[in-house]
Amino acid sequence: MGRSVHALCSRLGLEVDIHISTSLIDMYVKCSNVPDARRLFELVPFRDVSTWNALIAGYMKTCEIRVAEELFGKCPRGTSSRGPP
Question: How many CA atoms lie within 13 A of 68 on its CB side?
Answer without folding.
Answer: 15
